[in-house]
Amino acid sequence: EKAGYEHFMLKEIYEQPSAIKDTYRGRMLADRGIIRMAGVDDNLEKFLNAKRIIVVACGTSWHAGLVAEYIFEDLARIPVEVEYASEFRYRNPVINKDDVVIAISQSGETADTMAAIKLAKENGAFVFGVCNVVGSSISRETHAGAYTHAGPEIGVASTKAFTTQITILSLIALKLGKAKGSISNTDYHMYLNEMELIPSKIEKALESNKHIIEVAKVYKNAKNCLYLGRGYNFPVALEGALKLKEISYIHAEGYPAAEMKHGPIALIDEQMPVVVIATKKGHYEKVVSNIQEIKSRKGKIIAIVTEGDTSVKNMADHVIEVSETFEALTPLLTTIPLQLFSYHIAVMLGKNVDQPRNLAKSVTVE
Ligand code: M6R
After folding, report:
1. Per-residue confidence at 108, pLDDT binned at 50, 70, 90?
2. pTM for the full model?
3. Beta strands 144-147 and 80-84, pairing class
4. Does the record bear Metal-binding in its keywords (predicted)?
5. Is 361 a catalytic residue?
6. Could you tell me if the CB of 339 is within 6 A of ligand 1?
7. Whether residue 59 has its Cβ less than 6 Å from ligand 1
8. For ligand 1, is residue 58 a contact (CB within 6 Å)?
9. Which residue's alpha carbon is at the smallest distance from atom 7 of ligand 1?
């Protein structure tokens, strides 16, 4: 069932182009400029009148929620708060009737996310689910929802669930942005056309696999690793660090690049690999100056850059290219090399990639 792949995780990484296509197929009709999703269409007024969106989730799904925060605020101009379900449920949070709560969960069984949903419902909020497992508890408990059509995800480390969650959330943001007039018609159409190109751009990103193996060889014995990104790629940095931690047991932290000087830069020395997402458009110049700060302290830079980049290439110890796309869609591409990097390190260290120690695929206890 691993279809010739050594691990489910690798299979699932390679399934992302088709998983994303399956997720938007029938929902996004780019040539006609239509996004239709029953769960959103049937509740459109609730979304359009929402004073705020609260995302509740855990782990990787929480990272997808953070990406959604950027895209919803950017394109649909709706304020978004992203909450760890475990904190939200016990905090006596302020929940209003005109809040829309989006619960994100691959398995649809996560106990904390479920409890957060129940609390939101008790307080009169409309709760929308983004789940992968059809018929799961969360998909049944929510008022409406949209499934990611990623197919079964077996590897404990979430990969295709993450990129398909971002796909769904981007479609919702685009749909609302169009309905509210907060994005122009031209931009809306351009986004839809660009979204259709994402699967082939992911294929392209996967072609860096051999190069990533070489980079992984250099850093497999690292004790720590930092991941930096800004804007849309800040959550990708968090996700990259989580992937490395959970399957290779190397300590890793993700930060918004500009936070370095508020503390973490003290960690930098020649032993410290720093993965920097430095794609064009996303505050590129600022990220470049963050890279310089790390270089001058002898940190090792692994940079994820836009194809054809030259300035970062001159500074970084390694560069991994991804295709150019709209800034809001870059997480769908920049995530790919980070998944492969952590995968190969874990394999080289002989770890149990698909079933890392101490972890379960769905966390049904709090
Ligand atoms: O099934 P869920 O999306 O609700 O799961 C949430 C987290 O437990 C999950 O994303 C976890 O962090 C993964 N192991 C990350 O790879």
Report:
1. very high
2. 0.97
3. unpaired
4. no
5. yes
6. no
7. yes
8. yes
9. 59
| 59-93 residue pLDDT tens | 999 999 999 999 999 999 999 999 999 999 999 99
Instruction: Tell how far the Cα of 306 is from the centroid of ligand 1, in angstroms.
Output: 29
State yes or no: ipTM above 0.90: yes
Residue to probe by mutation, ligand 1, list 62, 110, 139, most atoms within 8 Å of CB = 110
What the block records as the tokens of 361 is 């695929």
Across the strands, what pairs with 322? 306
Contact 85, 112 (CB under 8 A): yes
CA distances from 320 to 12, 137, 173, 195 (A): 20, 39, 29, 22
Type of residue at 114? M
Question: Do residues 12 and 159 make contact, with C-beta atoms less than 8 angstroms apart?
Answer: yes
Is residue 366 helix, strand or coil? coil
Lookup: tokens for 69: 């925060």
Contact by Cβ (8 Å): 348, 220: yes
Ligand 1 centroid, distance to 65 Cα (angstroms): 12
C-alpha Rg value of the chain to the nearest Å:
20
Q: How far apart are CA 41 and CA 105, in angstroms?
A: 21
* Two structure tokens written together for 277: 């997402």
How many whole angstroms separate alpha carbon 269 and alpha carbon 175?
Answer: 46
Q: Which of 82, 102, 107, 246 to mutate to test the pocket of ligand 1 (most atoms within 8 A of CB)?
A: 107
Contact predicate 151/106, CB 8 Å: no
Cα–Cα nearest to 64, from 121, 136, 120, 113: 113
Sequence-ordered strand ranges (E) for the chain: 28-29, 34-35, 52-57, 80-84, 99-105, 126-131, 144-147, 224-229, 251-256, 273-278, 300-306, 318-322
Whether the CB of 363 sits within 6 Å of ligand 1: yes
* Side-chain half-sphere exposure of 254, counting CA atoms within 13 A: 21
Helix (DSSP H) and strand (DSSP E) numbers for the chain: 15, 12
Ligand 1 lined by 86 (C-beta under 6 Å): no
Q: What is the pLDDT of residue 307?
A: 96
Task: Tell me how far apart the terminal alpha carbons of the chain are, to the nearest angstrom.
Answer: 31
Position 245 confidence tier, pLDDT thresholds 50, 70, 90: very high
Q: Is the CB of 279 under 6 A from ligand 1?
A: no
